[in-house]
What we know:
Helix content is 22%, strand content 35%. It has eight helices and 17 strands. It has helices spanning 14-23, 67-71, 91-103, 159-166, 186-191, 203-215, 253-259, 279-288; strands at residues 2-9, 34-36, 39-43, 53-58, 78-80, 83-86, 110-114, 127-131, 135-140, 143-148, 174-177, 195-200, 222-226, 238-243, 260-273, 293-306, 309-319. The radius of gyration is 21 Å and the shape is globular. The mean pLDDT is 93. This is Class I SAM-dependent methyltransferase. Residues 77-320 form the SAM-dependent methyltransferase TRM5/TYW2-type domain.
Amino acid sequence: MVEVPCVRVRPSEGESTRRALAGGEFLHPSYEITVVDGWLYIPVVDAPDDYTVVVRDAPERNRQTMPSDILGYEPSYERLGELAILDEDDPERAREIADALCSSDLPIESTVNRASKVKGDLRVREWDVLAGDTNTIHREYGNEFALDVAQVYFSPRLATERHRVVEQVQEEEQFIDMFAGVGPFVVPAAARGARTVGVDLNPAAIEFLRENARRNGVEERVTAIHDDVREIAYDDWADRLVMNLPHSANEFLETAVRLAGDECVLHYYDIQHEDDPFGPGERAIRDAASEYDVSVETQHTVRSYAPHEVNVCLDVRLMR
Length: 320
């Protein structure tokens, strides 16, 4: 037995919870699900939001060869489909980990190491390719997303947050993602029956968005636009707007107000100091949306971003 984080739920909720965790790639592949004293304990590789997580002993599955078996230590990496992402400063250590990942029983076919920060208007970074290539298929809450990390920005860590937002989407809603990327908000919103528009400056992201709409069978409800969102002609159209550009979303609030219909829910992402994480965003929204009644429905902390800084989301309802 080994102590691991486990999501604790009642057995009646077990299968739906297991499917949700598997969709977000949170399930731990090395440990068994157990039932103790009327509770189901599901081992996870990370502690997802919105679940009760406890640390407890879990039995190991029939042993696979894991990277740690080869290396003698537990490497740090991030999974994106069958692509493993490293953040190692030492090239020799990065190569050692890449070889172990690809030699293990994990379904990993490619490994890359971060070679730069996210940069530029297209939000991409440089990579050292250690095995395979930079293309992958990421699965998230029942949807598949093709992408190339060398051409587009994508964070699997935001899967739970994206799911939280998409669960609020209603059928026939008019939905705009102002910075859509490869479609992780747009595609599942369309799958819930919304009429969706995804906009991005990155032409590669828009091509992947179109591919992902086809891949998930929602292309008839997705309009993908390669443009600056400030230039699109969807005035007074949106019932829901996603603004996931936390370093500079405030610069696009005038556009958001122009796109919003008479009633619109705005999901506004921000990065602020922990002493006042929500105040600056709320004040900016109220200043920009003076023609609306503004009500903040949710103040949600997404994750820690840096020392004393947090990534937050404000769910705000605008009523003209």
